[in-house]
Amino acid sequence: MEEVDHLAHERQTAEFDVEAMKIVWAGSRRTFEIADRMSRLVASDPEFRKDNRNMLGRKVLFRNSLRKAAHAWKRINELRLTEEEAAMLRVFVDEASYVDLHWGMFVPAIKGQGTDEQQKKWLSLAYKLHIIGCYAQTELGHGSNVQGLETTATFDPETDEFIIHSPNLTSSKWWPGGLGKASTHAVVYARLITDGQDYGVHGFIVQLRSLDDHSPLPGITVGDIGMKFGNGAYNTMDNGVLRFDHVRIPRDQMLMRLSKVTREGKYIQSDVPRQLAYGTMVFVRQAIVSDASKALSRAVCIAVRYSAVRRQFGSQDGGPETQVIDYKTQQSRLFPLLASAYAFRFVGNWLKWLYTDVTQKLQAGDFATLPEVHACTAGLKSLTTSVTADGIEECRKLCGGHGYLCSSGLPELFAAYVPSCTYEGDNVVLLLQVARFLMKTVSQLGSGTKPTGAAAYIGKAEYLLQYKCNVRKAEDWLNPSVILEVFEARAVRLAVICAQNISKASNPEEGFSELSADLIEAAIAHCELIIISKFIDKVQEDNEGRGIKEQLQILCNIYALSLLHKHLGDFLTTNCISSKQGALANEQLRALYTQLRPNAVSLVDAFNYTDHYLGSVLGRYDGNVYPNLYEEAWKDPFNDSVVPDGYHEYVRPLLKRELRFSRL
Amino acid sequence: MEEVDHLAHERQTAEFDVEAMKIVWAGSRRTFEIADRMSRLVASDPEFRKDNRNMLGRKVLFRNSLRKAAHAWKRINELRLTEEEAAMLRVFVDEASYVDLHWGMFVPAIKGQGTDEQQKKWLSLAYKLHIIGCYAQTELGHGSNVQGLETTATFDPETDEFIIHSPNLTSSKWWPGGLGKASTHAVVYARLITDGQDYGVHGFIVQLRSLDDHSPLPGITVGDIGMKFGNGAYNTMDNGVLRFDHVRIPRDQMLMRLSKVTREGKYIQSDVPRQLAYGTMVFVRQAIVSDASKALSRAVCIAVRYSAVRRQFGSQDGGPETQVIDYKTQQSRLFPLLASAYAFRFVGNWLKWLYTDVTQKLQAGDFATLPEVHACTAGLKSLTTSVTADGIEECRKLCGGHGYLCSSGLPELFAAYVPSCTYEGDNVVLLLQVARFLMKTVSQLGSGTKPTGAAAYIGKAEYLLQYKCNVRKAEDWLNPSVILEVFEARAVRLAVICAQNISKASNPEEGFSELSADLIEAAIAHCELIIISKFIDKVQEDNEGRGIKEQLQILCNIYALSLLHKHLGDFLTTNCISSKQGALANEQLRALYTQLRPNAVSLVDAFNYTDHYLGSVLGRYDGNVYPNLYEEAWKDPFNDSVVPDGYHEYVRPLLKRELRFSRL
């Protein structure tokens, strides 16, 4: 096909330096360069082809996934890639597989919970992939309530071993990725029982399969839990089921950094602070926030480009029809998502910093900020993944009928993304944790304890409860300090109202439970405020490059004002703003959409995604959608024959009136 | 497995007569009995098994679908089912296939647009399935803008034929269901050109494939457009692509009821009113609303039952944990959807009546109510399908991790359902049509034209603009007339504000376009009001049976008050209610959840769905979830072998350090 850039006219209208924005998006020139190199490496290697993924049956799909993982490992070694480069390469391979859990959960679990000796032994095997590990926590009967897990690890002092056992059906391990077919080992979470006493849930390294022939070891029943949402999507992953029938492991395979069992069977807590475990949680969740901005930006990139290509209605005098991106209805759904992608990117980068900061503090024995950091990351994980999941589906709808085709890439992206809302903390459960933190913070307001970090604004409660927004004309809404204070006032007021209502209940727990739907809304207000404040910080940084600061300012304002419009009830009911001010915000929002419009395509170009990574005919860089959509259809094996399998048995007899049973 | 009803305790707490509610849900005892009989017929016939659907490759899936369609046809004939029974049977077969389009679009198109003679000829073939037809309207380049279709039908007076042609790539027919592989004929929409003049889009009956061997006829290129969202889902359907290379058809295959071309090539409008065509549109859209209540109620049924089975947290003294349905966060997401399912069911039944009513009026030459009826059905199609699509996904999330498994039935239900938001009118485009109608109605307020039907309340604009809600305590919100007036006031005020803002623009079209996002909100307010008012009517009907009226009242109030909470900004910004009244509504809503709780499982039992139709391990009638979830996993062919295909090539070499390329 001819190489023409069908979006060239869109790119010419950009009012900023796209190359400079690419660096801003990446976070640094170095990160940009690594991402750029790795994404091109993957895109140019036919072994990493993924456009046929949704046409493959499960077994072939999985075999394919094993092949890619091995090929990636080969390339990582051949090119002597650094750990950072290797991780980036895996991102761009863009296929959920056992290696994700091996590197993302198994290795960190041993690092976080293993003794130095255990780390030395197991990590050296894991780093070379001489064992493949997964993370076997969730069970059929327990997900969110980790303390309710039922698998047991009973110490047998006679043999110096733990006996791992699944006492009932609901204790079956269920969901761990990489478990079903690939892993040789697992970190298994089980109730530690010694000397007749239950010490609660601990981690144990358990070998599952023979290193010779991959067959499950005696006492182990293991398999895949079956098909999941979507065609390809997460079905490249072998989420597994696992049962133990009195499986014995040496005592030293209990992860003993935080507590241990002695040769005599005595349970001893180590002097390593248990709070260190929260560091890992913060790490995992900041990575999830970072992934949210990746997933949302991919969907937005596809929807923005296709909305610029697609034309419908509005032809005058035989001229071309209107680009759908020019419709206000399209803009009011699409541009807030574009702004959210940027917002999540920046808050994700900030969380990376926060993780480093809290790790240093923890190592120095300073645990004071941990509850706030924990609430912050839990809340941001919840908010960003929920918005991203819904946002991907919204982008799919914004692509009209063609978005429903797998070749649009969006169904796949959605189905592969949505588990983020559930894993590593169900999003509702997490928001309730944030709410609990907020209630505690509010209750301590009089006590002299000063809220810190992202919750510091609660310390200004007295001021914020009195605050009156002074917006008088639409442009006043462009003032970052106005936006910040209005969102602070909303967050603090919702929290205080909840606290007041809880205090009316017969007991606080009952009140908390009764009001939990309202508490969720207060938690969301807190999280949205954090994201806005970090976006404002980002805009105020020294952003080099033509027009960068202006575009970020527009995106930041769209992010904030579209949230204000979405949650207008919150702001009005707490008297943070008046109806008139709400209407002015909406007016300003429309003006911002108009300002953003000529930059929309370039703002998604700044994500620097290859066509391979996007995996979407609709989102192609060159905008040459229709011929490629057409070509793509004919590649489906279903089109190998014009007369479909089954015609002779099930269609012809109807048409030929040859159905024996016909009584017509 | 033992047959125990794990939900028996839930069923004992019902405060109403479930059997009576089944009749209310069905609409009449007769409809209940037909649905009950047909659903059991399908469920008990192993040929209609569908639990393996998500594990099949596309070709096998499609072959399977052809087999089921033929088997259904066999049973329909053997049992001499009525048209109504046959349609119901197809519903419970629950698999998208060519027959849907044959009966749902091809036949109605000929009925609506064909002359008596054409109907006689073609319908007699179609009714016996001696031809299979589809509806070829949408093209690669045009969906919503039907007038922009590019396929041409040029009359050739020399041969008395039309030449059907695809002049460019974007004119390729794209999406029609049943087109890709199954159909022998299509109603093709093309621009009628005669005597050098373009008369716009008209329908033509075109044979696509040989009735002998099913091969495409000369000049016809036809195929499937490839994989769509989901595993099984809509992939049982052969949505197709079709191109014409100067295909000739006899002149009398133009559908000539509304206009015709004479032997000489003269274009003549018939005296049949063109408005009659809208009757078909009303029919199709009321059917879609009816389907929305079916789809949403299935999802809700699954989520309610599983939420009663699932327990997490809150165990005291070693007792059982709390059922997740007892959490207010779960209730505040789930119960409004349960209420919506009932609301959509009742408004769907009302639309059936409306269709009959408008058809009688049209036949009597009374077109006055048509614009209102058209706006009403367009809006309700949009609102109910959007809420249903989002609601199914919300139900999936409410089932936690297990909802992501195909065996939960929810991924399949979602992926198969979401196209409803796009087909038969994109939901946003439809809401803009409603908004246009509202603006026209408001603009005519002074002129003496009285708004009719579901828009009659706009006639009370003067009163409603003055209206002050007099709620003083939470229970005041239980008064139906309060709810009705508050929602009327909100709808009218949003519409009037839009009209005022439009009038400020330099011209009305520009104003309409600039404010279209606000107009969408006004349209939604109008539609929600209709649904509430029909629900209130239903509650006030003579509902026999113990507790029926009370339960419907609770559901109706939950539906209304949860919408009020969701759109609180609308109500506050238009001064329909005060912040205090909003808080009281929320308080009442929580009380209603508590009232609903003991009836929840029985309220979904009243849908009378078989386990086959639900197709969900989580939603099983007997609540015996865990053992069946476990069994289901092992049925997946992926578990046929413990060592997966690909192990020897791609896993063993890593573990055995045998990768030639390894440099570690």
Short description:
With 664 residues, chain A is of the alpha+beta class. Chain A contains 23 helices and 11 strands. In chain A, the strands form 3 sheets. In chain A, strands 1, 2, 3, 5, 6 and 9 form a 6-stranded mixed β-sheet that branches.
If you had to describe this structure to a student in words, what would you say it looks like?
2 copies of one chain form a homodimer. The mean pLDDT of chain A is 96. In chain A, a hairpin with a 5-residue loop joins strand 10 and strand 11. In chain A, helix 12 packs across helix 14. In chain A, strands 1, 2, 3, 5, 6 and 9 form a 6-stranded mixed β-sheet that branches. Chain A has 23 helices and 11 strands. Chain A starts with 7 loop residues before the first helix and ends in a 9-residue tail after the last helix. Chain A is an alpha+beta fold and 664 residues long.
How large, in whole angstroms, is the Cα Rg of chain A? 27 Å
Q: Poorly predicted ranges of chain A (pLDDT <50, ≥5 residues)? A: none
Distance between the termini of chain A: 53 Å
Strand content of chain A: 5-15%
Mean pLDDT of chain A: 96
- Strands of chain A, total number: 11
Q: Tell me the helix content of chain A.
A: 40-55%
Major sheet of chain A: size, sense and barrel closure? 6 strands, mixed
Which chain pair shows the most residues in contact? A-B, 140 and 141 residues
Specify the overall morphology of chain A.
globular
Class computed from helices, strands and strand pairing of chain A: alpha+beta
Chain oligomer state: homodimer
Number of helix segments of chain A? Answer: 23
